[in-house]
Amino acid sequence: MKVSVSHKEGMKFEAKTAKSSFIIDCPVISPVEYFLSGVITCSATDMILIPKNQGKTVTDLVVDGDAERAEEHPRKIVKLHLTYSFNSDADDTTAARWVMASLETYCSTVNTIRDTAEISYSITHNGKLIRENEKMISGGGSTIDMGEIESCPS
């Protein structure tokens, strides 16, 4: 995977990938906010694709992220809480498993920061809070084999 970033003017940069390009307009949106958006979007795509691969449907998905950064430079993200809210045609246990599969196995951006950040999550499924402030299993990823899933090409 290759990305090229070039300076345009002031604090505007253009990021180019093999597929597209976009403008990064600092300080309107900081690179850390773009990074956090990418982390959240990675998991959000899993939350659509994992159920789809099981013949289920997720609607009204919103994933909120609340990150805490270290005071000292390089000001790494030290805590991240993700709040998932969605409706689906699955039971609560299955819905929770989708979130855990995304966080523990499939989402590469979450797994990139999991060894340096404390990551927790809450889940509201079909209007009911089913998990609150659950912590991810620590360490370098899960060994649980969830099988192959369709995903966005990376």
Give me some keywords for this one.
four-stranded mixed sheet, 154 residues, globular, single chain, 3 helices, three-stranded antiparallel sheet, alpha+beta, GMP Synthetase, Chain A, domain 3
How is this fold's topology laid out?
Elements: E1 3-9, E2 12-17, E3 21-25, H1 31-53, E4 58-69, E5 77-88, H2 92-106, H3 108-113, E6 118-125, E7 128-135
Parallel strand pairs: 5-6
Antiparallel strand pairs: 1-2, 2-3, 4-5, 6-7
Helix pairs in contact: 1-2
Structural features, described:
The structure is a single chain. The protein is of the alpha+beta class and 154 residues long. The protein has a domain at 31-135: 2-Layer Sandwich (GMP Synthetase, Chain A, domain 3), CATH 3.30.300.20. The protein is 29% helix and 38% strand. It has helices at residues 31-53, 92-106, 108-113; strands spanning 3-9, 12-17, 21-25, 58-69, 77-88, 118-125, 128-135. The strands form two sheets. Strands 4-5-6-7 form a four-stranded mixed beta sheet, with helices on one face. The protein has a three-stranded antiparallel beta sheet with strand order 1-2-3, with no helix packed on it. Helix 1 crosses helix 2. The longest helix has 23 residues, at 31-53. Mean pLDDT is 91; it is low at 139-144.
